[in-house]
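Exam prep: given the inputs below (a chain plus nicotinamide-adenine-dinucleotide), describe the expected output before reading on.
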Amino acid sequence: MQSVLITGGAGFVGQNLVHTWRAARPADRLTVVDAMTYAANIRSLEPLIADGSIQFVKGDIGDAALLQRLFEENRFTRVAHLAAESHVDRSITDPEAFLQTNVLGTFTLLKAALDHWRAASVLDRARFLHVSTDEVYGSLGWTDPAFTESSPYRPNSPYAASKASSDHLVRAFVATYGMPALITNCSNNYGPYQHPEKLIPLMIIHALEGKPLPVYGDGSNVRDWLHVSDHCEALMSVIERGRTGETYNVGGGNERNNRNVVGLICDMIDRAFDAEPSLAARFASCPAASGRSCRTLITYVTDRPGHDHRYAIDATKLSTELGSRCSVGFEGGLSQTVHWYLGHETWWRDVISGAYQAWIDKNYGFR
Ligand code: NAD
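Solution:
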């Protein structure tokens, strides 16, 4: 039995990881610490909070006193660190928050864990997993080989630079203090509970509402799409069985350009409307409601500054050392995701409208 701290557990990947962990290791004690920024949502965790199967703490990873108290009370032996500012576009307009949380926050958390584990003499049994991104490696040319764990760091956005800095801090804690830490660098995730500001949910929701589908540049930028359930399985393998001090790349093996992804989403929504006539009444503004293709909404917009052309991940180390492989094919996973958003209209409407914030106030008095 482990006592586990999951930071950022109310975010997209964090929520999915809490559910994966709960199902895989029911005896472990889980504590979620999350600052409940705009990106957080604890509705899916509410049943687990209510029945006491997880402890939820609203708090900032930059709060050293809070972390010290939580380590003393809970004696964590596992930390899965996911808390971050995560949206590249926001990092371009407001980079300070990214440095504060992703760099200084990670440092504060590392120090709290190290201090506690040293004092409790459990450094040899404890594990700290730092969840990072392939964006630290920069951009690939169309024919370059995929990123490996030894690819040089060349971050291009403030987000990527802040995550690169945090990776370097983790590495330095391993080399300098013997911190039992591991790093994962993964590609773009998709799946249930992703905030509507990210590409796939944004396109699904805009299509349903008949709004333009804004695609950066000519839509040729390539991402390696990873279903969040495969990511969470990989994180569980790495934290339990990975070698401390090591980095593991996690990728979906699903390289697609944005034009292709958005086109597939449109086709999937068109087909869903054909198969389920009641959708036309629920989403009357969607072109599919009147028999037109959602592709008519695709609009090419000025490219993002510093936009990386291509990411691709070589996940050989993860599969050969730990036997962890992705099992969700892209088109199946995308179709499931489209249907998840079709079936969770209240969830995303509340997030978009701010009703979720009101619900948080009423139920938890967080804000
Ligand atoms: P997210 O933005 O959905 O969630 C981040 C969570 O962190 C939110 O719940 C937020 O409230 C919380 N948080 C932010 N600042 C905090 C602070 N100072 N203290 C405590 N909590 C704070 O992000 P995500 O998509 O779930 O990503 C999780 C992690 O995975 C991040 O570290 C991200 O860099 C990494 N990652 C994500 C992807 C992806 O495609 N989603 C890809 C690669 C890496």
